[in-house]
Design goal:
The complex is a heterodimer of chains A (173) and B (411).
Chain A (H helix, E strand, L loop, with lengths): L1 E5 L9 H10 L35 E4 L5 E4 L8 H4 L6 E4 L4 E4 L9 H5 L6 E2 L7 E2 L12 H5 L5 E5 L12
Antiparallel strand pairs in A: 1-8, 2-3, 4-5, 6-7
Chain B lengths: L1 E5 L3 H13 L4 E6 L10 H5 L21 E5 L3 E5 L4 E4 L5 E2 L2 E4 L3 E3 L13 E2 L4 H11 L4 E5 L3 H13 L2 E6 L11 H13 L3 E4 L3 E6 L5 E6 L4 E3 L2 E4 L3 E3 L2 H5 L21 E3 L10 H15 L13 E6 L2 E7 L8 E6 L4 E7 L2 E8 L7 H7 L37
Parallel strand pairs in B: 1-2, 1-7, 2-3, 7-18, 9-16, 10-11, 10-16, 11-12
Antiparallel strand pairs in B: 4-5, 5-6, 8-17, 13-14, 14-15, 19-20, 20-23, 21-22, 22-23
Classes of the chains: A alpha+beta (173), B alpha/beta (411).
Bound molecules: flavin-adenine dinucleotide and iron/sulfur cluster (SF4) (2 copies).
Chain lengths: 173, 411
């Protein structure tokens, strides 16, 4: 499975990753222009991203570490995801083969147990309707992979292949 | 190996999923009274008409269609013969097992008040049969009295109000959701329910009932002397583990089935998980227990160690609340609160350790609080900036890229 790796030492706090995330998940076509039916999400320029539109929310967060550096918060798509164990609708499931935690908004019952159960505080209710969960989806719709990684100018984010499961999930007998 | 799982609730399905992943070639038989897999936590959405029965199914797609998995729905287990390794049910012959999991959950516990236990128009809310009965009883805008102002009571009230019913909620505590909320946060929910037509009688429980000659409850009597006429009653007065037949099978159980930290019961190869163990009454813990049992059924040595269960989220009428830990301060506890027109937040801190957190209005990105509370992490170094605390203050990376809590002093 692939995971987004983080080197906090390289993070400049530019938040290009957060902008790329917002751009990758924006629903609305470019405001004030005719929607281009041919344009893929990737072709939507970040320059037309409406930062004030509450539906354009980032799924990753950059925090100052208080010492002049920055700490990127990204969903880890954990091998044993606490968000999935708490999901009572089946909306959150871990795709074992891909090693990704998927979210199905149709199934979600907006109980927000997942928000409470992620030890790192990644999921959140959507700002506008508070009826869906906003969480990293690994940009599965995009052939090129996670937008944040492609947008990072310092190499603080990259994709690495890791073993599909942590050792404690392996058979001991 | 043949695994038999009794119950397809949170724990049973988690176990089936785990065994399927760990041992794709093993045989699994699920037996359940439930004819449909459904999440108890969504029953109010069914009552209100907001969700169909099919959409209450929380099982991973394809799990019950996977090879070497058989599901006997609508079948109730009556007895286990642990010596012979057999499960006896109410239909068909005995089912043999190599490993057995009891994941039968809990049943509504109705107090012996008036005719609440016996009348035909008094319903618990535990499964889809209850939800169907309640929805039917409510049709035509009939009057309901909901006894109990906890989670299940408010779920029932919310579903009924959306259906257009007339609802009065009765609770013994002075505020709603007394286990999850303080009075301030509770009052906000109460006001929202009242704005949707709900009436409340708090601080005095039901003390009796009046019935008609047909045995139907026609009024609920309160300790205060008040009489609440009604067409039916929802008894949301708590649950008890579903253990009667387990005890009769010679498996050690008192109020709940007794298990060790690996979810093993007193009988060899028989495990138990979920509400039936009495260790918890919430979804995430039932799932964890089901996973631990399943891993041990597959020959691993797993331990149920994430036992913390004082945690919940509340979402009614567009208002979300997160409540973890103990919100009642004692002694020299530091109590911090802040509020604005959309939020109310409270922290209870004892000797530098967070004991309880309540966030109402904006619960985004707040999962780290549970970790800090249940692991008793010292936050005394962060008190000057406590409202802006996040996981980043404990940031650490594993070699495989996962996060861990680094340099976190435990008291
Ligand atoms: C209305 C309501 C709202 C809730 N809301 C929340 C919430 O918001 N958050 C939260 O964390 N928790 C909530 N809970 C609690 C949560 O649903 C339970 O903790 C959880 O379902 C427990 O899972 P379980 O697998 O132990 O039992 P259950 O989910 O109850 O499943 C029990 C299974 O066993 C079967 N069974 C029982 N006896 C037999 C028998 N003799 N033979 C065969 N099969 C049998 C049943 O048919 C069922 O399939 C709620 C519960 C209710 C009732
Ligand atoms: S939301 Fe949290 S628990 Fe779930 S996979 Fe992401 S980091 Fe892990
Ligand atoms: S809010 Fe949705 S995704 Fe999160 S636990 Fe509840 S049902 Fe699952």
């Amino acid at each position: 499975m692939k995971r987004i790796f983080i080197d906090p030492g390289k993070c400049d706090g530019c938040m290009n990753c957060s902008l790329a995330c917002m751009n990758a998940h924006r629903a609305a076509p470019v405001p004030g222009t005719a929607p281009d039916p041919g344009a893929t999400v990737e072709e939507q320029s970040v320059y037309t991203l409406d930062l004030t539109d509450p539906t354009n929310e980032a799924r990753n967060f950059i925090h100052a570490d208080g010492k002049g550096g920055y700490l990127p918060l990204f969903c880890r798509h954990c091998a044993r995801p606490e968000c999935v164990s708490s999901c009572m609708s089946g909306a959150l499931q871990r795709d074992q083969a891909a090693g990704q935690v998927r979210y199905d908004p149709e199934k979600c019952a907006a109980c927000f147990m997942c928000v409470m159960n992620c030890p790192y505080g990644l999921p959140k209710p959507d700002q506008l309707t508070r009826s869906k969960v906003v969480k990293c989806d690994f940009c599965v719709r995009l052939a090129a992979g996670p937008s944040c990684v492609r947008a990072c100018p310092t190499g603080a984010l990259w994709i690495e292949e890791v073993a599909a499961d942590t050792p404690d999930l392996e058979d001991v007998k | 190996m043949k695994h038999v799982i009794i119950g397809v609730g949170a724990a049973g399905v988690a176990a089936a999923k785990t065994i399927r992943n760990l041992r794709p070639d093993d045989e699994i038989v699920c037996i359940s009274t439930d004819r449909e897999v459904h999440s108890r936590c969504m029953l109010h959405h069914y009552i209100s008409g907001g969700r169909s029965l099919e959409s209450l199914n929380f099982a991973p797609d394809g799990l019950f269609e996977s090879p070497r998995l058989t599901w006997l729905g609508g079948v109730t287990v009556k007895r286990i013969d642990a010596a012979a390794g057999l499960v006896h049910t109410d239909s068909g012959g005995p089912v043999s097992y190599g490993r057995l999991l009891i994941a039968t959950g809990a049943v509504s516990a109705v107090p012996p008040v008036g005719a609440l236990r016996t009348a035909k128009n008094v319903f618990g809310l535990r499964d889809i049969a209850d939800a169907k009965a309640i929805a039917q009883a409510a049709s035509g805008g009939r009057r309901a009295v909901v006894v109990g102002a906890g989670f299940v009571g408010l779920d029932a009230a919310c579903g009924l109000l959306e259906l257009g019913g007339k609802v009065t909620v009765v609770g013994t505590a002075d505020s709603v959701l007394p286990q999850q909320l303080d009075e301030h946060a509770a009052a906000v929910y109460q006001a929202r329910f009242e704005a949707h037509g709900c009436a409340f009688r708090l601080g005095a429980g039901a003390s009796g009932t009046e019935s008609d000659p047909a045995g139907k409850v026609t009024a609920v009597l309160l300790g205060s002397g008040e009489r609440l006429p009604c067409d039916f009653v929802v008894a949301a007065t708590g649950v008890r583990p579903a253990v009667d037949w387990v005890r009769e099978s010679g498996i050690e159980a008192e109020r709940a089935v007794k298990v060790d930290e690996g979810m093993r019961t007193s009988a060899p190869d028989v495990y138990a998980a979920g509400d039936v163990t009495g260790l918890s009454g919430i979804w995430p813990n039932a799932v964890k227990q089901g996973e631990v049992a399943a891993r041990n059924m597959c020959g691993q040595s797993a331990v149920y160690d994430d036992t913390y269960a004082l945690k919940n989220t509340v979402n009614f009428y567009g208002l979300q609340t997160l409540s973890v830990g103990n919100l009642a301060p004692a002694g020299n506890d530091l109590v911090l609160t802040r509020e604005d027109n959309a939020r109310y937040e409270k922290l209870v801190i004892r000797d530098g350790v967070v004991k309880g957190v309540l966030l109402q209005g904006d619960i985004g990105n707040s999962g780290f609080w549970q970790y800090l509370i249940k692991n008793k992490i010292d936050v005394s170094g962060h008190l000057d900036n406590i409202w802006r605390l996040s996981y980043t203050r404990f940031y650490g990376l594993e070699e495989n890229g996962e996060y861990r809590y680094a340099a976190a002093a435990t008291v």
